[in-house]
Amino acid sequence: MHQGVLSAGDRLGLPDLLRKLPGDSAFGAHHYEVVDVKTSGRTRSDQILQVCFYSQLLGEVQQRAPEHGAIVLKDGREERFAVADYAAAADEVVAALRQLRDDPGAARPFLQAGCAGCYHDQRCLGELGKAQDLSLVQGMSHGARAILEGLGCRTVVDLATFHPEHARQRGNLDPTLVRRLRRGAQAHLLGKPIVEERPRTERLEPAAILHLLADPYAGRVLAMGALFPATEAGRFEWRRPQQAGDEWQALRELVAGLPPRSALLHFGEALPRWYEEQAFAREADPALEVRFVDLQKRLRAAAVYPRPVFGLADFVSSGLGRDPLRAGHAGAAALWLGLPDADARLEQKLRTDLLDLATLKAQILDAAPTPLAADGPRAVLDAARPA
Q: Domains (ranges, CATH) in the chain?
């Protein structure tokens, strides 16, 4: 059954599929279980909870709780699971939703990774900015915000000058965490990153930057590019594999033009994850994989940013003050393939992202620590105050 409507009490659900199974229920000598269809390549916890929610509704409607639920993934695989294994977590989510329904004023936004994909983000960001909410600080968690607010530290300005003398005054939060959060508040007020003091024993030169544009739904790399050396003045090259079988050769061609011992910088897990999957079925060179260096981890550790940073767009906007979407959104790259200027769009997006990564390396990783005045927090507040 496709798109069956399930209604019970104050809940309503429209699962993708209801699968008919033998076994008595209110409907007779058969009953149903929930199957939801997803475009992801692997099952996520929120998807499982959604199926559990539908299963609870279905159990009340057919007067028999389904034992299993299932998720069909983008490659057609079906993952089936026991509903009882996740029932407690599903009950907690439903209880929290009911609480929010009954007391909407208790709902508060919190800036996190998922906000970038939510159509309410502009409304919430406005509220957070107006209140100078602590979630605007890099490294903040729900728990830390609650503890700090309980101590009277309620805004970014409060946190920028927060200097507790002992554990009780900091709510028993780890002192290193408090110091880093305070620096995050100061960076927010300054509107620019604060580069941290750190060991600089490992050099990333010579280095190149590799970058991919992918279609996660199709499991394909649409284009890949390299910048060498890893500076804005570096030489840019790119390849557009016409089909999945051409991707491996495209990478080999890009790497062949680079010095054999150069570090291969990349951002996040996309490149190493794809390489691992490809290398499993090929005669891959183990020496190539050990040259991969994740810029995302290093950039996150090297500075405190004016806002929480999650993906490349956050690092570009918070770290460089640039529009990260000026060459388009990477998630829309698959939609460009049918356009007459597809090659030009893909090339421009790759080039722009690679230049942004090179600038981040220069201004964050290779930069000297940000000097702060002796009266640090007070100087930050003075600098952040409009003239």
A: 6-102 (no CATH), 113-193+371-384 (no CATH), 207-365 (3.30.420)
